[in-house]
Structures are given as structure tokens and as C-alpha cells.
């Protein structure tokens, strides 16, 4: 209700204040004959209302009416949707399309812009991603996550009377399991519980920051979120290096500090807040959806129970290899992500460029225009995923082969038909860690927690406002009650 009201206020203000932008940009509004333009475009705001209120419905409707490519207008910006996976590699190969990292970093995390176009820095940062968020680096992080999660659970268990149930929500439980353990695994002894409230306030409004609204809107309507972001920035600026931080964070901060010509002291805190949010903002809701789908599916539960008893021992810190052996759990996680992922894969066009689509159509994208690939459309395409609205935990069991063999109208498209984490150079570097976290939380619940859903008929919907950011949380939490079985705390000296 508050969101709706806030939004109305925003839109009224926007209406008045951006009219001058409209007049200024009138000359630039060249209509591209090759791209169908979505109708019902309002003056000045364009399709902003339909887009913000129910993005996925709007995009799916447009696809049905206009085909796989169509254009909308958001304030003064044109955005072309390219929704057929057969056209995506053409986009990724075209150097004229780039991730608007400047706008994202500045708008969402309050960074200054000086370093975004610095290619050498970004190449070095991507080498760190590969070294520390995959292979050995990933294993260390995964084991720390297991260790800290067990500690959090043990502390939580101590607050229960013997045999007593605790009433909670599935989203709340997912947040509890991921937030502290993940933050400690990455950032070390930074005491995440002391700034949990600020994270929640900022995270709750983050989709407005992704909407790239004019700055005064944030100052006017989102002062609480701005204050929370400022407070997080201060905490991360004062705790640049913490005891027991991960190799990944250590080397990333060192790299930033080695470039004072690119990063102000303000940017060090902001960029850590960026990494902090990136590591949690999608992983918490993703964990919610995996728990929701798996715990509600008796066959999945039985099968996954068997393999976690076999491969995940009680008294060891689970490794990536152990988790990889749980192939049914792995498939259930992929299936959850297929159903829940809704990121807009956004690119800007730096020069006017032409692309040829798989059906031989030629598109001209103008300089400054935005394009979006919207993989969610493809994740729900019944030609790729039969019965797409049904959770089939074993759909990805043959995993790599299944993805490698994806076909659309007898044309092999392979794994580009599954794009929840993006693709190519800008692909999410945390995807392996996120998947491990989701598996660990599921396994911990199945092994050590008794749970009951309070209302078995409660079927959650994805939060409409948050769709487009990555993985949206549910519109409302699902009430549950839980209590612990006995479990051991792992050797503190690890
Ligand atoms: C299920 C959980 C997650 C989802 C769905 C997700 C999704 C995404 C998506 C869609 C992108 C943008 C890709 C593009 O534009 O091509 C992205 C980028 C990114 N993600 Fe994730 N992510 C998740 C978890 C994580 C975790 C756990 C971390 C860190 C440990 C992380 C760190 C990042 C970073 C640093 C980027 C920016 C990459 C760059 O510099 O180009 N993510 N993520």
C-alpha cells in the first residue's frame, strides 16, 4: 500500500518535472520502422506505469502481441526487448552494446563515475572473480558458509525451550540462514547482525534505485533508504579489512586501494556495499524459492533426502565436491532458478548499430538506446521447457547434456536458453557460491530441522515490483513453525 502511494506521488512529480526533458528530446525521437513499437504510450512517461506495476506481465503480453522483438519507452529512454534466445549471441558479440555499469554503480550504490571505463581495472577485477569465486576459492568460501551457518543455527537453537516450536516465515528463515553466514564467509568479522536492519531497509527499496529515476525523487521519497545506504557505506569504509575476511574480498579491496586515481575514499565503502548487496539481494529470495518448491514436493524431498544422507556427512564441513555429488538437489536448484529468475539483462548502445535476427530481419538500434534480453520469457517457453509452470525437480538431472541439447524449432540453441545469471563477460561471478548456499540451506533444513507450513494452501506470487532485478522475493511471507533436531557444531579451529 505504501509502495503504491509512494509511486503515485513519484509519478505526479515526474510528470511535471520531466516535461522539459520531453521537449528537449523531441527531436531525437526517431521512430525505427524495423521494430514494432508498443501502443498505449503516454506522453512523457511512456510505458513507465505498466512497466513498474507488473513488469513480467507487461513484457509477456507485449511478446504475445508483437512477437519476439518490440520497443517501449520509459521516460525519455527507448528500450528494445529482444526475447528470442536465438538472437542473444548476436547481441553479446556486438561490441556496441555494453552494461551501463556507470549508471548502476552511481544510482544504486552512490559511487562516483571515474573508474567505470577503466578497462585494465575491470579485467583485473574479473580475474579475481575467476580465481576466488570458482574452484579452490569457492571451496574455502563454501566451507566457511557451512561453519558459520552451523554457528548461527546453534545460537538460534539455544533460544528454544526443549521441544518448543518457533513461529516464523519461510522468507524470514531463508534470510536468517543466508545473511549472517554469507556475510561472515565473505567479509570476515564485521558483525553483520549490527547492520542487518540497514540492509533490510535498503534492500526493500532497491528496485526503485534500479529504475534510474531522477535524483531528486530519491531525496524526496526514499530518504530512509538513502540513510540506510549511507550508514552501510560508513560501516564498510571503517572496516575496510576484517579478521578472517575471504581472499576474494581481501584482494578486491587491495586492488581498489591500489588505484587512488580511480577510487575516492567514498568509493571504497560504496563498492563494498555493492558487493555486499550483490551477494545477498538475490540469494536470500532464491533460497526462499528453493525451500518452498522442494519442501512442498514429497517426491523431491524423498529423493533429495537419500542423497544428502549419503554424501553430506554430519561432522564435516561440506565441500563443493560433496555438494556436486547431490545431483537431484542440483537439478532442483536449477529448476527453482529457472522458475524464479527474472533479471532484465540490460545493455546500452554506444553507437548506432545494426543486428540481423535469426529470422533474417535487420534491426537498427540507435545510439543511447537500451536493449533488454529478458531471459524469463525463454525460461517459460514450453518449446524449451515442457509444462513450464510446473516445478519438476528432476528436469535438469542430465544437467549439462540437457542444457547443451536445448532446441528451438529444430534449431540447436544450447545453454543460452538458460540465462538466469547473464552471459559472457558480465555474467554473475557469484553464481557458483549462490548455488552452493542454496543447496546447503536446503540440506541443513532437511537434516536438522522439523518444520510445518501453517497454511498448506498458501501459494506465494513473486513480488511484482521486484521482478527485473534478479530473483524477486514473494509478495508475502509464508508462515511456518520449526524446531531443531540435534546437530553437532563443527570444530572451531577450521
Ligand atoms: C541466486 C543468486 C544470484 C543471482 C540470481 C544473481 C544474478 C546476477 C545477474 C543477473 C547479474 C548481471 C548479469 C549481466 O548483466 O549480464 C549479476 C551480476 C553480479 N553478481 Fe550476481 N546473482 C546472484 C548471486 C550473487 C552472489 C552470491 C554474488 C557474490 C558473491 C554475486 C555477485 C555479482 C557481481 C559482483 C555482479 C557484477 C558482475 C560484473 O562486474 O560484471 N551474485 N548477478
Automatic annotation (TrEMBL):
Substrate binds at residues 107, 282. The chain crosses the membrane at residues 6-23, 206-226. One of its GO terms (cellular component) is endoplasmic reticulum membrane. Its main location: endoplasmic reticulum. InterPro entries: CYP450_sterol_14alpha_dmase (IPR050529), Cyt_P450 (IPR001128), Cyt_P450_CS (IPR017972), Cyt_P450_CYP7A1-type (IPR024204), Cyt_P450_E_grp-IV (IPR002403), Cyt_P450_sf (IPR036396). SUPFAM superfamilies: Cytochrome P450. Pathway: Lipid metabolism; bile acid biosynthesis. It comes from the Eukaryota. Keywords: Endoplasmic reticulum, Heme, Iron, Lipid metabolism, Membrane, Metal-binding, Monooxygenase, Oxidoreductase, Steroid metabolism, Transmembrane, Transmembrane helix. Its cofactor is heme. GO terms for biological process: bile acid biosynthetic process; cholesterol homeostasis. The keyword Transcription regulation does not apply. It is found in: Endoplasmic reticulum membrane. The keyword Secreted does not apply. Belongs to the cytochrome P450 family. This is Cytochrome P450.
Amino acid at each position: 500500500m505504501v509502495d503504491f502511494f509512494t509511486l503515485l506521488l513519484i509519478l505526479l512529480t515526474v510528470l511535471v518535472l520531466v516535461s522539459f526533458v520531453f521537449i528537449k528530446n523531441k527531436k531525437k525521437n526517431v521512430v525505427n520502422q524495423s521494430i514494432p513499437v508498443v501502443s498505449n504510450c503516454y506522453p512523457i512517461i511512456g510505458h513507465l506505469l505498466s512497466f513498474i506495476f507488473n513488469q513480467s506481465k507487461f513484457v509477456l503480453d507485449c511478446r504475445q502481441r508483437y512477437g519476439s522483438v518490440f520497443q517501449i519507452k520509459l521516460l525519455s529512454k527507448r528500450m528494445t526487448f529482444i526475447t528470442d534466445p536465438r538472437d542473444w549471441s548476436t547481441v553479446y558479440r556486438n561490441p556496441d552494446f555494453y552494461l551501463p555499469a556507470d549508471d548502476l554503480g552511481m544510482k544504486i550504490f552512490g559511487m562516483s563515475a571515474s573508474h567505470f571505463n577503466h578497462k585494465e581495472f575491470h579485467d583485473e577485477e574479473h580475474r579475481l572473480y575467476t580465481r576466488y569465486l570458482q574452484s579452490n576459492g569457492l571451496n574455502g568460501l563454501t566451507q566457511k558458509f557451512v561453519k558459520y551457518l552451523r554457528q548461527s543455527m546453534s545460537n538460534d537453537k539455544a533460544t528454544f525451550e526443549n521441544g518448543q516450536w518457533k513461529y516464523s516465515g519461510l522468507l524470514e528463515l531463508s534470510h536468517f540462514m543466508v545473511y549472517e553466514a554469507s556475510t561472515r564467509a565473505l567479509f570476515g568479522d564485521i558483525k553483520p547482525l549490527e547492520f542487518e536492519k540497514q540492509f533490510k531497509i535498503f534492500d526493500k527499496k532497491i528496485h526503485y534505485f534500479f529504475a534510474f529515476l531522477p535524483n531528486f525523487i530519491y531525496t524526496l521519497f526514499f530518504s530512509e533508504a538513502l540513510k540506510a545506504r549511507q550508514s552501510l557505506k560508513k560501516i564498510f569504509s571503517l572496516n575496510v579489512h576484517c579478521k578472517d575476511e575471504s581472499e576474494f574480498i581481501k584482494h578486491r579491496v587491495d586492488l581498489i586501494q591500489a588505484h587512488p586515481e580511480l577510487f575516492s575514499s567514498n568509493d571504497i565503502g560504496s563498492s563494498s556495499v555493492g558487493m555486499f548487496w550483490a551477494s545477498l539481494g538475490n540469494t536470500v529470495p532464491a533460497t526462499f524459492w528453493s525451500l518452498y518448491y522442494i519442501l512442498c514436493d514429497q517426491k523431491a524431498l524423498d529423493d533429495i533426502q537419500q542423497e544428502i544422507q549419503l554424501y553430506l556427512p554430519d561432522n564435516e564441513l561440506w565441500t563443493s565436491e560433496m555438494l556436486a555429488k547431490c545431483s537431484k538437489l542440483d537439478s532442483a536448484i536449477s529448476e527453482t532458478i529457472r522458475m524464479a529468475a527474472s533479471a532484465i539483462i540490460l545493455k546500452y548502445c554506444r553507437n548506432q548499430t545494426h543486428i540481423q535476427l535469426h529470422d533474417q530481419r535487420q534491426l537498427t538500434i540507435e545510439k543511447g538506446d537500451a536493449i533488454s534480453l529478458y531471459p524469463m520469457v525463454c525460461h517459460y517457453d514450453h518449446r524449451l521447457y515442457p509444462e513450464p509452470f510446473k516445478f519438476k525437480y528432476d528436469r535438469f538431472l542430465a544437467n549439462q547434456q540437457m542444457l547443451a541439447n536445448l532446441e528451438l524449432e529444430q534449431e540447436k540453441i544450447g545453454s543460452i536458453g538458460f540465462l538466469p545469471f547473464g552471459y559472457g563477460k558480465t555474467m554473475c561471478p557469484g553464481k557458483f557460491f549462490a548455488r552452493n548456499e542454496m543447496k546447503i540451506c536446503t540440506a541443513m533444513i532437511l537434516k536438522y530441522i522439523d518444520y510445518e507450513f501453517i497454511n498448506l494452501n498458501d501459494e506465494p506470487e513473486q513480488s511484482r515490483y521486484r521482478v527485473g532485478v534478479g530473483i524477486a522475493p514473494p509478495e508475502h511471507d509464508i508462515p511456518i513453525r520449526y524446531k531443531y533436531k540435534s546437530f553437532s557444531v563443527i570444530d572451531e579451529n577450521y
